[in-house]
Amino acid sequence: MRSLTVLTIFVTLNVVICDPTFWKKSLDHQPKGVWQKKLVWKEEWVKDFKVEKQEIWKTEHKKVQVPVWKTIEVPIWREVKVPDWKVIKKPHVIEKEIPAWKEEKVADWKKITKPIWVPHQVAVWKEIQVPYWTSVNVPVWTEVDVPVWKEVKVPVWREQKKAVWKEVKVPIWREVQKPIWKEVQVPYWKDVQVEDWKQIWVPAWVKEAVPGEKYLGKDQQGNEYTAHDVWRKKMIWKPQWKKIWKTKQVEAFRTEKKQEYVTEKVQDWKVEKVQDWVVEKVQDFEIKKVQEWKKDKKLDWKQEKKLNYKTEKKQEWKTEKKLEWKDEWVQVWKQVKKQVWVKQKTEVWKEEKIQIWRTEKKQEWATEKKLVWKDEVKEEKVPAWVEKKVPVWKKIWKPVWEKVWVPTESHGHGWD
Questions:
Q1: What distance in Å separates the CA atoms of residue 53 and residue 387, rounded to the nearest whole number?
Q2: pLDDT, tens digit, for every residue of 313-345?
Q3: Which residues belong to the signal peptide in this entry (predicted)?
Protein backbone atom coordinates (compact mmCIF):
# COMPACT_ATOMS: atom_id res chain seq x y z
CA MET A 1 0.00 0.00 0.00
CA ARG A 2 2.79 2.43 0.82
CA SER A 3 4.66 1.67 -2.43
CA LEU A 4 1.49 2.35 -4.43
CA THR A 5 0.98 5.66 -2.63
CA VAL A 6 4.58 6.73 -3.27
CA LEU A 7 4.27 5.69 -6.91
CA THR A 8 1.06 7.71 -7.33
CA ILE A 9 2.71 10.79 -5.86
CA PHE A 10 5.69 10.46 -8.21
CA VAL A 11 3.46 10.05 -11.24
CA THR A 12 1.50 13.15 -10.28
CA LEU A 13 4.68 15.15 -9.84
CA ASN A 14 6.03 13.97 -13.17
CA VAL A 15 2.84 15.01 -14.89
CA VAL A 16 2.94 18.43 -13.28
CA ILE A 17 6.62 18.91 -13.95
CA CYS A 18 6.36 17.84 -17.58
CA ASP A 19 3.66 20.41 -18.20
CA PRO A 20 5.27 23.26 -20.30
CA THR A 21 3.07 25.93 -18.84
CA PHE A 22 4.30 25.07 -15.42
CA TRP A 23 7.84 25.68 -16.41
CA LYS A 24 7.05 28.75 -18.33
CA LYS A 25 5.48 30.29 -15.27
CA SER A 26 8.17 29.18 -12.96
CA LEU A 27 11.19 30.04 -15.05
CA ASP A 28 10.77 33.66 -14.35
CA HIS A 29 10.98 33.18 -10.62
CA GLN A 30 13.30 30.13 -10.13
CA PRO A 31 17.04 30.23 -10.46
CA LYS A 32 18.68 28.55 -13.36
CA GLY A 33 19.41 24.92 -13.04
CA VAL A 34 19.04 21.48 -14.54
CA TRP A 35 17.17 18.37 -13.59
CA GLN A 36 19.27 15.43 -12.66
CA LYS A 37 18.45 11.81 -11.85
CA LYS A 38 19.42 10.69 -8.41
CA LEU A 39 19.28 7.16 -7.08
CA VAL A 40 17.80 7.08 -3.64
CA TRP A 41 16.85 4.21 -1.37
CA LYS A 42 13.33 4.43 -0.17
CA GLU A 43 11.85 2.55 2.75
CA GLU A 44 8.96 0.28 1.92
CA TRP A 45 6.93 -2.19 3.89
CA VAL A 46 6.01 -5.38 2.09
CA LYS A 47 3.75 -8.12 3.28
CA ASP A 48 5.49 -11.41 3.82
CA PHE A 49 4.56 -14.71 5.34
CA LYS A 50 6.56 -16.55 7.89
CA VAL A 51 6.02 -20.09 9.09
CA GLU A 52 5.20 -20.36 12.76
CA LYS A 53 4.52 -23.39 14.85
CA GLN A 54 1.24 -23.25 16.72
CA GLU A 55 0.15 -25.67 19.38
CA ILE A 56 -3.26 -27.14 18.80
CA TRP A 57 -5.25 -29.93 20.39
CA LYS A 58 -6.14 -32.70 18.04
CA THR A 59 -8.42 -35.61 18.77
CA GLU A 60 -6.77 -38.96 18.69
CA HIS A 61 -8.55 -42.26 18.94
CA LYS A 62 -6.77 -44.53 21.30
CA LYS A 63 -7.56 -48.15 21.73
CA VAL A 64 -7.78 -49.00 25.44
CA GLN A 65 -8.81 -52.07 27.32
CA VAL A 66 -11.50 -51.52 29.93
CA PRO A 67 -12.30 -54.12 32.58
CA VAL A 68 -15.94 -55.22 32.44
CA TRP A 69 -17.86 -57.83 34.30
CA LYS A 70 -19.13 -60.60 32.07
CA THR A 71 -21.71 -63.06 33.26
CA ILE A 72 -20.68 -66.59 32.40
CA GLU A 73 -22.01 -69.98 33.37
CA VAL A 74 -19.55 -72.26 35.06
CA PRO A 75 -20.15 -75.92 35.96
CA ILE A 76 -20.25 -76.62 39.67
CA TRP A 77 -20.65 -79.84 41.56
CA ARG A 78 -23.34 -79.77 44.17
CA GLU A 79 -23.79 -82.50 46.70
CA VAL A 80 -27.28 -84.01 46.71
CA LYS A 81 -28.64 -86.81 48.83
CA VAL A 82 -29.92 -89.85 46.91
CA PRO A 83 -31.91 -92.67 48.58
CA ASP A 84 -30.15 -96.07 48.54
CA TRP A 85 -30.52 -99.48 50.13
CA LYS A 86 -27.78 -100.76 52.38
CA VAL A 87 -27.43 -104.28 53.71
CA ILE A 88 -26.50 -104.26 57.39
CA LYS A 89 -26.06 -107.03 59.89
CA LYS A 90 -28.08 -106.81 63.07
CA PRO A 91 -27.40 -108.98 66.08
CA HIS A 92 -30.28 -111.40 66.75
CA VAL A 93 -30.55 -113.33 70.00
CA ILE A 94 -31.88 -116.92 69.90
CA GLU A 95 -32.85 -118.55 73.18
CA LYS A 96 -32.53 -122.32 73.68
CA GLU A 97 -32.57 -124.53 76.76
CA ILE A 98 -29.53 -126.61 77.65
CA PRO A 99 -28.93 -128.91 80.66
CA ALA A 100 -26.68 -127.62 83.41
CA TRP A 101 -25.68 -128.51 86.96
CA LYS A 102 -26.72 -126.04 89.55
CA GLU A 103 -25.50 -125.94 93.10
CA GLU A 104 -28.32 -125.56 95.59
CA LYS A 105 -28.23 -125.15 99.35
CA VAL A 106 -30.05 -127.88 101.27
CA ALA A 107 -30.98 -127.49 104.93
CA ASP A 108 -29.25 -129.87 107.37
CA TRP A 109 -28.90 -130.15 111.18
CA LYS A 110 -25.54 -130.05 112.87
CA LYS A 111 -24.65 -130.44 116.57
CA ILE A 112 -22.43 -127.75 117.95
CA THR A 113 -21.11 -126.72 121.40
CA LYS A 114 -22.06 -123.15 122.03
CA PRO A 115 -20.68 -121.00 124.87
CA ILE A 116 -23.35 -119.20 126.87
CA TRP A 117 -23.25 -116.77 129.74
CA VAL A 118 -25.05 -117.87 132.82
CA PRO A 119 -25.87 -115.12 135.35
CA HIS A 120 -25.12 -115.69 139.14
CA GLN A 121 -25.09 -113.42 142.24
CA VAL A 122 -21.74 -112.18 143.56
CA ALA A 123 -21.30 -110.05 146.75
CA VAL A 124 -19.56 -106.72 146.10
CA TRP A 125 -18.88 -103.52 148.01
CA LYS A 126 -20.39 -100.49 146.35
CA GLU A 127 -19.70 -96.88 147.11
CA ILE A 128 -22.88 -94.93 147.50
CA GLN A 129 -23.57 -91.26 148.05
CA VAL A 130 -25.24 -90.49 151.33
CA PRO A 131 -26.96 -87.06 151.53
CA TYR A 132 -26.39 -84.61 154.39
CA TRP A 133 -27.15 -80.85 154.86
CA THR A 134 -24.57 -78.03 155.22
CA SER A 135 -24.99 -74.21 155.54
CA VAL A 136 -23.45 -72.31 152.68
CA ASN A 137 -23.56 -68.76 151.36
CA VAL A 138 -25.40 -68.88 148.12
CA PRO A 139 -25.26 -65.98 145.68
CA VAL A 140 -28.69 -64.83 144.70
CA TRP A 141 -29.82 -62.27 142.22
CA THR A 142 -32.11 -59.59 143.49
CA GLU A 143 -34.07 -57.24 141.30
CA VAL A 144 -33.22 -53.56 141.60
CA ASP A 145 -34.30 -50.52 139.51
CA VAL A 146 -31.42 -49.16 137.47
CA PRO A 147 -31.69 -45.97 135.43
CA VAL A 148 -30.80 -46.54 131.79
CA TRP A 149 -30.87 -44.41 128.66
CA LYS A 150 -32.94 -46.04 126.02
CA GLU A 151 -33.07 -45.10 122.41
CA VAL A 152 -36.63 -44.84 121.29
CA LYS A 153 -38.07 -43.88 117.98
CA VAL A 154 -40.13 -40.74 118.28
CA PRO A 155 -42.50 -39.99 115.40
CA VAL A 156 -41.80 -36.62 113.77
CA TRP A 157 -43.43 -34.94 110.82
CA ARG A 158 -41.00 -34.07 108.06
CA GLU A 159 -41.74 -32.07 104.96
CA GLN A 160 -40.86 -33.94 101.80
CA LYS A 161 -41.16 -32.96 98.20
CA LYS A 162 -43.17 -35.44 96.23
CA ALA A 163 -43.41 -35.54 92.48
CA VAL A 164 -47.00 -35.49 91.33
CA TRP A 165 -48.55 -35.25 87.90
CA LYS A 166 -50.68 -32.17 87.73
CA GLU A 167 -53.13 -31.39 85.02
CA VAL A 168 -52.60 -27.88 83.74
CA LYS A 169 -54.21 -26.02 80.94
CA VAL A 170 -51.73 -25.13 78.23
CA PRO A 171 -52.70 -22.50 75.68
CA ILE A 172 -52.56 -23.75 72.10
CA TRP A 173 -53.45 -22.11 68.86
CA ARG A 174 -56.14 -23.90 66.96
CA GLU A 175 -57.28 -23.09 63.46
CA VAL A 176 -61.02 -22.61 63.18
CA GLN A 177 -63.21 -21.61 60.30
CA LYS A 178 -64.87 -18.38 61.25
CA PRO A 179 -67.79 -17.06 59.20
CA ILE A 180 -67.41 -13.42 58.20
CA TRP A 181 -69.59 -11.14 56.18
CA LYS A 182 -67.76 -9.71 53.24
CA GLU A 183 -69.08 -6.87 51.19
CA VAL A 184 -69.19 -7.75 47.52
CA GLN A 185 -70.38 -5.73 44.55
CA VAL A 186 -73.36 -7.41 42.87
CA PRO A 187 -74.46 -6.14 39.46
CA TYR A 188 -78.14 -5.28 38.93
CA TRP A 189 -80.23 -3.24 36.55
CA LYS A 190 -81.21 0.16 37.82
CA ASP A 191 -83.86 2.50 36.40
CA VAL A 192 -82.40 5.95 35.97
CA GLN A 193 -83.86 9.12 34.46
CA VAL A 194 -81.93 10.06 31.40
CA GLU A 195 -82.29 13.38 29.59
CA ASP A 196 -83.69 13.09 26.10
CA TRP A 197 -84.94 15.54 23.46
CA LYS A 198 -88.34 14.98 21.93
CA GLN A 199 -89.60 16.81 18.91
CA ILE A 200 -93.05 18.35 19.45
CA TRP A 201 -95.21 20.57 17.30
CA VAL A 202 -96.27 23.81 18.91
CA PRO A 203 -98.99 26.03 17.29
CA ALA A 204 -97.76 29.48 16.47
CA TRP A 205 -99.30 32.51 14.77
CA VAL A 206 -97.41 33.93 11.90
CA LYS A 207 -98.11 36.86 9.62
CA GLU A 208 -98.95 35.97 6.07
CA ALA A 209 -99.23 38.49 3.29
CA VAL A 210 -102.44 38.36 1.34
CA PRO A 211 -101.79 39.22 -2.30
CA GLY A 212 -104.10 41.57 -4.18
CA GLU A 213 -106.81 43.82 -2.98
CA LYS A 214 -109.15 42.95 -0.28
CA TYR A 215 -112.59 44.43 -0.07
CA LEU A 216 -113.13 45.94 3.30
CA GLY A 217 -116.71 47.25 2.89
CA LYS A 218 -118.51 50.53 2.41
CA ASP A 219 -118.81 53.46 4.67
CA GLN A 220 -121.93 55.44 5.33
CA GLN A 221 -121.47 57.51 2.28
CA GLY A 222 -121.18 54.44 0.11
CA ASN A 223 -117.54 54.65 -0.52
CA GLU A 224 -115.88 51.37 -0.95
CA TYR A 225 -112.77 50.67 0.93
CA THR A 226 -110.08 48.22 -0.25
CA ALA A 227 -106.79 47.29 1.29
CA HIS A 228 -103.55 46.33 -0.35
CA ASP A 229 -100.67 44.34 1.18
CA VAL A 230 -102.82 43.05 3.95
CA TRP A 231 -101.33 40.76 6.49
CA ARG A 232 -103.27 38.03 8.09
CA LYS A 233 -102.57 35.70 10.94
CA LYS A 234 -101.99 32.08 10.15
CA MET A 235 -101.60 29.28 12.64
CA ILE A 236 -98.84 26.92 11.82
CA TRP A 237 -97.28 24.00 13.65
CA LYS A 238 -93.76 24.84 14.54
CA PRO A 239 -91.31 22.01 15.47
CA GLN A 240 -89.73 22.36 18.85
CA TRP A 241 -87.35 20.16 20.83
CA LYS A 242 -88.53 19.52 24.34
CA LYS A 243 -86.36 18.16 27.06
CA ILE A 244 -87.91 15.04 28.57
CA TRP A 245 -86.74 12.44 31.07
CA LYS A 246 -86.66 8.89 29.91
CA THR A 247 -86.33 5.83 32.12
CA LYS A 248 -83.35 3.74 31.16
CA GLN A 249 -81.98 0.59 32.68
CA VAL A 250 -78.30 0.84 33.43
CA GLU A 251 -76.06 -1.69 35.06
CA ALA A 252 -75.16 -0.73 38.59
CA PHE A 253 -73.47 -2.41 41.47
CA ARG A 254 -74.91 -2.70 44.91
CA THR A 255 -73.08 -3.78 48.00
CA GLU A 256 -74.25 -7.06 49.43
CA LYS A 257 -72.93 -9.07 52.28
CA LYS A 258 -71.63 -12.50 51.44
CA GLN A 259 -70.78 -15.03 54.06
CA GLU A 260 -67.30 -16.48 53.78
CA TYR A 261 -65.16 -18.56 55.99
CA VAL A 262 -61.68 -17.53 56.96
CA THR A 263 -59.14 -19.54 58.85
CA GLU A 264 -58.44 -17.92 62.14
CA LYS A 265 -56.23 -18.92 64.96
CA VAL A 266 -58.00 -19.00 68.27
CA GLN A 267 -56.45 -19.69 71.57
CA ASP A 268 -57.63 -22.89 73.12
CA TRP A 269 -56.66 -24.69 76.21
CA LYS A 270 -55.30 -28.19 76.22
CA VAL A 271 -55.02 -30.24 79.35
CA GLU A 272 -51.49 -31.56 79.79
CA LYS A 273 -49.88 -33.41 82.58
CA VAL A 274 -46.86 -31.71 84.02
CA GLN A 275 -44.69 -32.90 86.79
CA ASP A 276 -45.02 -30.79 89.88
CA TRP A 277 -43.58 -30.99 93.32
CA VAL A 278 -45.82 -30.80 96.35
CA VAL A 279 -44.65 -30.57 99.89
CA GLU A 280 -46.08 -33.41 101.92
CA LYS A 281 -45.73 -34.16 105.56
CA VAL A 282 -44.50 -37.68 106.03
CA GLN A 283 -44.15 -39.35 109.33
CA ASP A 284 -40.62 -40.24 110.17
CA PHE A 285 -38.97 -41.55 113.22
CA GLU A 286 -35.99 -40.08 114.95
CA ILE A 287 -34.04 -41.73 117.66
CA LYS A 288 -34.09 -40.02 121.07
CA LYS A 289 -32.65 -41.07 124.33
CA VAL A 290 -35.10 -41.29 127.21
CA GLN A 291 -34.34 -42.29 130.75
CA GLU A 292 -36.07 -45.40 131.96
CA TRP A 293 -35.87 -47.67 134.86
CA LYS A 294 -35.21 -51.25 134.16
CA LYS A 295 -35.14 -54.20 136.42
CA ASP A 296 -31.61 -55.38 136.90
CA LYS A 297 -30.26 -58.25 138.89
CA LYS A 298 -27.88 -57.55 141.73
CA LEU A 299 -25.71 -60.25 143.17
CA ASP A 300 -26.34 -60.86 146.84
CA TRP A 301 -25.52 -63.55 149.36
CA LYS A 302 -27.88 -65.50 151.53
CA GLN A 303 -27.60 -68.42 153.88
CA GLU A 304 -28.96 -71.63 152.49
CA LYS A 305 -28.83 -75.28 153.39
CA LYS A 306 -27.04 -77.24 150.78
CA LEU A 307 -27.50 -80.92 150.31
CA ASN A 308 -24.14 -82.64 150.09
CA TYR A 309 -23.26 -86.23 149.44
CA LYS A 310 -20.62 -88.24 151.14
CA THR A 311 -19.30 -91.56 150.00
CA GLU A 312 -20.03 -94.68 152.07
CA LYS A 313 -19.51 -98.36 151.32
CA LYS A 314 -22.52 -100.65 151.16
CA GLN A 315 -22.58 -104.38 150.44
CA GLU A 316 -24.71 -105.39 147.52
CA TRP A 317 -25.29 -108.40 145.34
CA LYS A 318 -24.19 -108.03 141.78
CA THR A 319 -25.28 -110.25 138.94
CA GLU A 320 -22.34 -111.49 136.92
CA LYS A 321 -22.18 -113.63 133.82
CA LYS A 322 -20.35 -116.95 133.87
CA LEU A 323 -19.22 -118.65 130.64
CA GLU A 324 -20.49 -122.22 130.17
CA TRP A 325 -20.71 -124.66 127.20
CA LYS A 326 -24.03 -125.94 125.91
CA ASP A 327 -24.81 -128.47 123.13
CA GLU A 328 -27.15 -127.17 120.50
CA TRP A 329 -28.44 -128.30 117.13
CA VAL A 330 -28.19 -125.64 114.44
CA GLN A 331 -29.46 -125.71 110.93
CA VAL A 332 -26.80 -125.40 108.28
CA TRP A 333 -26.88 -125.37 104.51
CA LYS A 334 -24.87 -127.74 102.40
CA GLN A 335 -24.17 -127.56 98.69
CA VAL A 336 -25.92 -130.11 96.50
CA LYS A 337 -25.66 -130.37 92.68
CA LYS A 338 -28.94 -130.45 90.83
CA GLN A 339 -29.56 -130.74 87.10
CA VAL A 340 -31.59 -127.85 85.70
CA TRP A 341 -32.44 -126.52 82.28
CA VAL A 342 -31.09 -123.07 81.67
CA LYS A 343 -31.85 -120.75 78.83
CA GLN A 344 -28.86 -119.99 76.70
CA LYS A 345 -28.92 -116.96 74.46
CA THR A 346 -27.06 -117.30 71.22
CA GLU A 347 -26.28 -114.19 69.27
CA VAL A 348 -26.49 -114.53 65.52
CA TRP A 349 -26.12 -111.87 62.81
CA LYS A 350 -29.10 -111.28 60.56
CA GLU A 351 -28.92 -109.27 57.35
CA GLU A 352 -31.38 -106.43 56.87
CA LYS A 353 -31.88 -103.84 54.20
CA ILE A 354 -32.22 -100.26 55.41
CA GLN A 355 -32.75 -97.13 53.41
CA ILE A 356 -29.89 -94.69 53.63
CA TRP A 357 -29.09 -91.40 51.96
CA ARG A 358 -25.84 -91.30 50.13
CA THR A 359 -24.22 -88.11 48.91
CA GLU A 360 -23.73 -87.79 45.20
CA LYS A 361 -22.21 -84.99 43.24
CA LYS A 362 -24.53 -83.44 40.67
CA GLN A 363 -23.26 -81.10 38.00
CA GLU A 364 -25.08 -77.78 37.76
CA TRP A 365 -24.51 -74.50 36.05
CA ALA A 366 -23.98 -71.43 38.18
CA THR A 367 -23.86 -67.83 37.06
CA GLU A 368 -20.55 -66.19 37.78
CA LYS A 369 -19.17 -62.77 37.05
CA LYS A 370 -15.81 -62.81 35.35
CA LEU A 371 -13.60 -59.80 34.85
CA VAL A 372 -12.70 -59.53 31.16
CA TRP A 373 -10.98 -56.85 29.17
CA LYS A 374 -13.01 -55.10 26.51
CA ASP A 375 -11.50 -53.09 23.72
CA GLU A 376 -12.84 -49.56 23.54
CA VAL A 377 -11.89 -46.58 21.47
CA LYS A 378 -11.24 -43.58 23.62
CA GLU A 379 -10.97 -40.06 22.33
CA GLU A 380 -8.15 -38.01 23.76
CA LYS A 381 -7.04 -34.49 23.20
CA VAL A 382 -3.33 -34.55 22.30
CA PRO A 383 -1.22 -31.44 21.87
CA ALA A 384 0.30 -31.13 18.39
CA TRP A 385 2.32 -28.56 16.56
CA VAL A 386 1.11 -27.31 13.16
CA GLU A 387 2.91 -24.97 10.83
CA LYS A 388 0.91 -21.93 9.80
CA LYS A 389 1.82 -19.03 7.59
CA VAL A 390 1.47 -15.83 9.50
CA PRO A 391 1.47 -12.51 7.61
CA VAL A 392 4.22 -10.12 8.73
CA TRP A 393 5.32 -6.75 7.48
CA LYS A 394 8.89 -6.61 6.32
CA LYS A 395 10.82 -3.42 5.92
CA ILE A 396 12.83 -3.27 2.65
CA TRP A 397 14.85 -0.56 0.94
CA LYS A 398 14.02 -0.09 -2.71
CA PRO A 399 16.16 1.90 -5.15
CA VAL A 400 14.20 4.73 -6.83
CA TRP A 401 15.37 7.21 -9.43
CA GLU A 402 14.27 10.67 -8.52
CA LYS A 403 14.57 13.91 -10.44
CA VAL A 404 16.21 16.64 -8.49
CA TRP A 405 16.75 20.25 -9.44
CA VAL A 406 20.37 21.18 -9.48
CA PRO A 407 20.97 24.91 -9.73
CA THR A 408 23.73 25.96 -12.15
CA GLU A 409 25.74 29.12 -12.62
CA SER A 410 24.96 31.68 -15.37
CA HIS A 411 27.92 30.78 -17.51
CA GLY A 412 27.42 27.11 -17.31
CA HIS A 413 25.38 24.76 -19.45
CA GLY A 414 22.67 22.45 -18.38
CA TRP A 415 23.15 18.84 -18.03
CA ASP A 416 21.07 16.45 -20.06
A1: 5
A2: 888 888 888 888 888 888 888 888 888 888 888
A3: 1-18
